[in-house]
## 1
Amino acid sequence: MEKIQKIKGFADLFPPDSTVFAFIEKTARAVFSRYGYKELRVPVLERTELFARGIGEETDVVQKEMYTFPDRKGRSLTLRPEATAGVMRALVEDGRANEGLVKYFAYGPMFRYERPQKGRMRQFHQIDVEAVGSPEPLLDAEVLLMLDQYLRALGLADLTVELNSLGCRQCRPAYLDVLREFLKGMHKEQLCEDCMRRKLTNPLRVLDCKVPQCKEFTADAPKITDHLCPECAAHFATVTGMLDAAGLRYTLNPRLVRGLDYYVRTTFEIVSGDIGSQSSVAGGGRYDGLVSAIGGPDVPGVGFACGMERLALLIDKVNEPAPDFYLAVLDASGLDRGLLLAQDLRRAGFSGEAPYAARSVKSQMRAADKSGARFCLVLGTDELAAGTVVVKNMTAGGQETINRDMLVAHLRARLEEAKDE
């Protein structure tokens, strides 16, 4: 029978890759909880309308990239292409969007139909952070400072913070008129096919195009930061002033618009020069109109997402913790007692393995060495009869014979000694 293969663009994650992902998630919990964020888990499947209304009908994500299909009742459903809209839907549905400032983080798989490439798969994973309920620029600054703290905790420091303001619902329309006027005379020899459509439907996205000819012919496009209303200008000045005071370096990028329609005011990306064309490892900003766009109250919010595959490309190998013991049973009649001994040790908090079938002494010693265990525990015929265990120190050398009822205390003492050395 022909074997079944995985779908292109959907990757399996074995160690050490899965170990890196676990490290990314564990670090997120540790850092974000220090800032008052709690973990939220939302479904991967949502009604298509959520993303059409939340992300924007004219975005590339909605137009080209979503996995959308009807269910058996004919309802249009979509595998989530990003997390923010789903988190907002959950907060609205549960009534939490009206509770003042609420802070949540989530993580998990997202889905976009794109050409698979380095750092970008059709099923990819994101760490998502959302703070809903405050319009204050100091919250924007703290979110950026927390993101910087998180990336440093992952061991990543050689990154560039790009920062921009996209204005608000009051001042952005006037800027869009100026931008449309600038783009009006451009034709297909100057702009790609997508940007010829975007200049009419979503002109901001033209500034974000990565096609060289589009970048060249829009190099002199008017800057949105030159058209901010006084309130937006003051908001952005407070954000940058706080980042300056905290010593967080950043680069102002007036072409940074992100790919989703819900962003207003503060917008940012964290960029690496070490992972090729897909250089953004994190991005986000403020989305004050998003909650109301999906039927909730008109409350402000700010957040970001980190691409876990791209973070993993930048993280050096993460070593899994070495097991505490490997149990070698030299007498086949003692396999059951060996398994019970291993179970007692695990209940006491130690990690390790025990054999399930008879094996030669040589193969068990080789397996003990390969496991990286700190101690090899040996149960031979004599030890089984006497109620003892031979404890071989696999790092410092030497061995001791210990009574079984003293084994837990002995291992604990030896591990503490190793920590102090």
## 2
Amino acid sequence: MKTIDEMLHLDLLTTEQHQQIGAWIAQADTPDDILKMPAPLWTAVERASEVMRLDEDFLRPPALDAGDAVLP
């Protein structure tokens, strides 16, 4: 929820999209349920993720000062 809140704050999602996505996530019992979110909502999340460069964040190696991080 924090990520979609940030997307709303950055005007990457409309208030309506934010509410619909939040409601979908709240009712989902499993990650598979989340994946069944309607296509227009997924499109909105994907566009916002691209602008925020979230994929790059997930692919970046952990910082050396990341606490208990295990490096290969």
## 3
Amino acid sequence: MLIETRAYARAGLLGNPSDGFFGKTIAISVRNFGASVTLYPSPELTIEPQLQDTNVFRSLHHLRDAVGTLGYHGGVPLLKAAIKKFAEYCENEGIRLPNHNFSIRYSTSIPRQVGLSGSSAIIVATFRALMQFYNVEIPQPVLPNLVMATETEELGIAAGLQDRVIQCYEGCVYMNFDRPIMEQYGYGQYDPLDPHLLPKLYIAYNTDLGKQSGRIHNDVRARWLAGEPLVIDTMSAIADVAREGHDALLRRDTEALHELVNRNFDLRSQIYSISDRNRALINTARACGASASFTGSGGSIIGIYRDDAMLNRLFVALKAINARVIKPYVV
């Protein structure tokens, strides 16, 4: 029995990053890039490392570039953490797993360190493979919580629910993380939307990863918890962007969506530090006439373009600053 599962990159369209602050978001799965997991029975439980998990390098510069792109440990810790969290979930739910071992390996085409959720895609694909191998059903709204817990509790990765929700549901999803809903159910209200409602979208992401500076650390959560009015009001306004965007999508109001995408980033920049590199992505895209906001925490942007002529301008202008443009494939 050979099991193969897959999960895709994602992009936050509106409301990002209010998901971690009882807000609302709209996100899409990006099937241009994906992570796959292969699992099959074996005498011992074996995690097979991939090329990116190697400890052998051609040179000092190769090591530097590999760590800058993939981190210090590659993808193997993601698989270990997902397997551990799956076993704990089954134990807590009283699900008795048969003593069957397996070998597991992963591969990914998702660009790393650019805010397209490559790590969580590997974890989602791992959970799907384990669920199939052991014939365990995890309720769809619960699965994103487990994926997020794998990252936050096991690996110390800062994470919000939006990314894991869209990678588990796929397509286009409107998410409501209002506090009463979260406290009552333990997860948000997730409403799939018809992807045909989406306007013409582009995504652009940095390609010069080896030249990236370190991550910008922000103190927004601490300020929010402390009740700082600017942060609370701004995060509420960002959530309203998603709520208004939901209505605009349903009435196919592309002009309103264009303005909302720009407003999302402009609000975010009031409380978050934005690196020069990331701001250059935004400014270059907007100079072409497109809207632009972050897909995640930075490194890639998403927006609306009007026609093929504008898309071509985006290709040329963003390539000049070492960014690649794609049209996201959403099913």
